Amino acid sequence: MTQTTQKLMQLFSQINHQPLMAKRTRHHHGDSIKSGRGPQRLLRLLSHNDGLTNAEIAELLDIRPSSVSAGIKQLEANQLAVRQTSPVDKRVSSVHLTAKGQQLMNDWQNIHNEVTEKIFANLSETEQTELVTLLTKMNVNLEQLETTEDPELQHLHQQIHDLTVQMGENNQQHHDHCK
């Protein structure tokens, strides 16, 4: 790994742990979203794809169906989403944002836009364009890596997974500390 790559990784890590960035996983709008990223991801998905089934949500978010059900129940309890039975097949229901859920996501997007403007305020238009180009290249590379059958990469992913499992309690403690 080059020194530049190491510096980039260090900077991304530092940026991600800045107080402003760490707050992005905290609770929003009081009690509306109690458990952080899971319900937020579900709300964001529904705000872009209203009317998904539990199975579609599980596939798109790559989570267990039981986690989808728990997330939907939480959103329903907070009146942010509702399930509607399909008129065609009574065994199937779709999940829709309520007006309150849509408003919450609109508010979130407005705040997110303001924060983004502040984060990038000290970059010129040219620097922002260069950053977009570089991050796009990185994203394309990540997408290609995800779709390859590279045994070395798969081995590295397995090692990361194993370490994550070993650190299970430490990760929860770190997450709780960041709150």
Task: Provide a brief overview of the structure.
The protein has 179 residues and is mostly helical. The protein is built from 9 helices and 3 strands, in the order H-H-H-E-H-H-E-E-H-H-H-H.
Chain-wise SSE layout:
Blueprint: H1 3-16, H2 19-22, H3 37-48, E1 52-53, H4 54-61, H5 65-77, E2 81-85, E3 93-97, H6 99-119, H7 125-147, H8 151-166, H9 168-178
Antiparallel strand pairs: 1-3, 2-3
Helix pairs in contact: 3-5, 4-5
What are the key terms here?
179 residues; mainly alpha; Arc Repressor Mutant, subunit A; 2 domains; three-stranded antiparallel beta sheet; 9 helices; globular; disordered C terminus
Structure, described:
- The structure is a single chain.
- The chain has 179 residues and is mainly alpha-helical.
- The chain is 68% helix and 7% strand.
- It has helices at 3-16, 19-22, 37-48, 54-61, 65-77, 99-119, 125-147, 151-166, 168-178, and strands at 52-53, 81-85, 93-97.
- It has a three-stranded antiparallel β-sheet.
- 9% of the residues are buried.
State the name of the first-level CATH class of the largest domain: Mainly Alpha
Taking Cα atoms only, what radius of gyration do you get, to the nearest Å? 19 Å
**CATH arch. level architecture of the largest domain:** Orthogonal Bundle
Q: Termini, distance in Å? A: 32 Å
Strand order of the largest sheet: 1-3-2
Fourth-tier CATH superfamily name of the largest domain: Winged helix-like DNA-binding domain superfamily/Winged helix DNA-binding domain
